[in-house]
Amino acid sequence: QVQLVESGGGWVQAGGSLRLSCAVGGGIKGFNVMGWHRQAPGKQRELVAAITSGGGTNYADFVKGRFTISSDNVKNTVYLEMNSLKPEDTAGYYCNMKVGPFNFWGQGTQVTVSS
User: Fold this and answer.
1) At 63, is the secondary structure helix, strand, or coil?
2) What is the pLDDT along the chain (115 residues), one digit of tens a residue?
3) What are phi and psi of 98, to 5 degrees?
């Protein structure tokens, strides 16, 4: 059974940094795309950043220059380094993995940024 387990969320003051991790378990080797999405209360879930198996990356405009997505294929883990955090970055952050026709989600980790 495939499992995506996020960690690293928490509370931080505006301007601070956090590093999220998404560990993939369940015997899956390789992926097409892994991404981080976020959802704030009352809002739709939105893509934050994505990385392909080839290392290509894509970022939402609202995080460009502040967030960095990376992957460690040995550890089967994807990271999201978040710098210069703003109160509007407050949301649940969810890891997503696409493997062929399948789409997997983690349970999410909460990020709260105070002003």
Assistant:
1) helix
2) 889 999 999 999 999 999 999 999 887 777 889 999 999 999 999 999 999 999 999 999 999 999 999 998 888 899 999 999 999 999 999 999 999 899 999 999 999 999 9
3) -110, 125
Task: Please calculate the CA angle 66-68-72 and round it to the nearest 5 degrees.
Answer: 165
- Cβ atoms of 6 and 20 closer than 8 Å: yes
Q: In this structure, how many other beta carbons lie within 10 angstroms of the beta carbon of residue 103?
A: 11
Q: Are 89 and 49 in contact (CB under 8 A)?
A: no
- Between vectors from CA 95 to CA 97 and to CA 18, what angle results, nearest 5°? 140
Spatial neighbors of 41 by CB under 8 A, at least 6 apart, are none
Question: Which residues lie below 8 Å from residue 38, measured CB to CB, with a gap of 6+?
Answer: 45, 46, 48, 89, 91, 92, 93, 94, 111
User: What span, in angstroms and rounded, lies between the C-alpha atoms of 69 and 81?
Assistant: 6
